[in-house]
């Protein structure tokens, strides 16, 4: 990871800690939480991410018909553990053609979701959540509202669940039709669940 980590906000090469500072740095954004290279969509890739992550590793479950898991990534280092996670999925668009989905969980201020959405700041920003929610996700008996975030070429929804931001990003934007009904999520860190996970090819939308 040391040679390939990038800034979660802009994707530029991250500078490793030095003898003068224990922080990773980005030339544009100062001190950051480094984003690791994408992990292949395998059980080993999932196990490695889930065992070192401080935030949920969200997966829609049951998966929409025909959808596959297409990779993982996380932002953090050996000292902090992963403070952001992203799970990629690919499958058929309800309105026709192929589609892709990224589900991101992160602590406030990390900037992975906002960076992928093309926002200037690390979080959804001023005016977020002022109106009526546009979608809902569920985890167990808890429901969390999501609001649409303006972003070119994709449908981006953001909200808060389990004390962290949750972002859903769908390509193309018409794939947002998947969220017409509330979407149930599982936290893949939970060792008690034995899910038969279908894996596909590595997603081109995963950062790093």
Report what the structure shows.
- The chain is mostly beta strands and 208 residues long.
- The protein has one domain.
- The protein is 7% helix and 35% strand.
- It has two helices and eleven strands; from the N terminus they run ββαββββαβββββ.
- The strands form two sheets. The protein has a nine-stranded mixed β-sheet with strand order 3-11-7-8-9-10-6-5-4.
- The radius of gyration is 16 Å and the shape is globular.
- It starts with 23 loop residues before the first strand and ends in a 21-residue tail after the last strand.
- The mean pLDDT is 92.
Topology diagram in text:
Layout: E1 24-26, E2 30-32, H1 43-51, E3 58-60, E4 68-77, E5 81-92, E6 98-106, H2 112-117, E7 135-139, E8 142-149, E9 155-161, E10 164-171, E11 183-187
Parallel strand pairs: 7-11
Antiparallel strand pairs: 1-2, 3-11, 4-5, 5-6, 6-10, 7-8, 8-9, 9-10
Distance between the first and last residues' Cα: 10 Å
Number of strands: 11
Radius of gyration, in Å, reads 16 Å
**Mind describing the biggest β-sheet?**
9 strands, mixed
Low-confidence stretches: none
Class derived from helix and strand content = mainly beta
Keywords:
single chain, 208 residues, mainly beta, nine-stranded mixed beta sheet, two-stranded antiparallel ribbon, 11 strands, 7% helix, 35% strand
Produce a short descriptive summary:
The chain is 7% helix and 35% strand.
């Amino acid at each position: 990871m040391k040679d390939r980590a990038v800034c979660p906000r802009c994707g530029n090469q991250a500078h490793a800690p030095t003898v003068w500072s224990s922080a990773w740095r980005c030339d544009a954004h100062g001190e950051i939480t480094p984003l690791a290279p994408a992990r292949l969509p395998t059980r080993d890739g999932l196990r490695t991410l889930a065992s070192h992550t401080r935030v949920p590793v969200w997966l829609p479950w049951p998966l929409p018909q025909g959808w596959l898991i297409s990779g993982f990534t996380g932002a953090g280092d050996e000292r902090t553990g992963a403070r952001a996670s992203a799970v990629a999925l690919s499958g058929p668009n309800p309105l026709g053609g192929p589609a892709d989905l990224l589900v991101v969980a992160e602590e406030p201020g990390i900037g992975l979701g906002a960076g992928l959405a093309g926002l200037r700041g690390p979080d959804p920003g001023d005016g977020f959540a002022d109106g009526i929610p546009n979608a809902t996700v569920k985890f167990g008996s808890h429901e969390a509202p999501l609001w649409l975030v303006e972003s070119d070429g994709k449908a981006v929804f953001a909200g808060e669940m389990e004390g962290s931001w949750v972002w859903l990003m769908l390509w193309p934007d018409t794939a947002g039709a998947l969220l017409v009904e509330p979407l149930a999520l599982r936290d893949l860190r939970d060792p008690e669940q034995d899910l038969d996970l279908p894996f596909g090819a590595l997603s081109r939308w995963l950062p790093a």
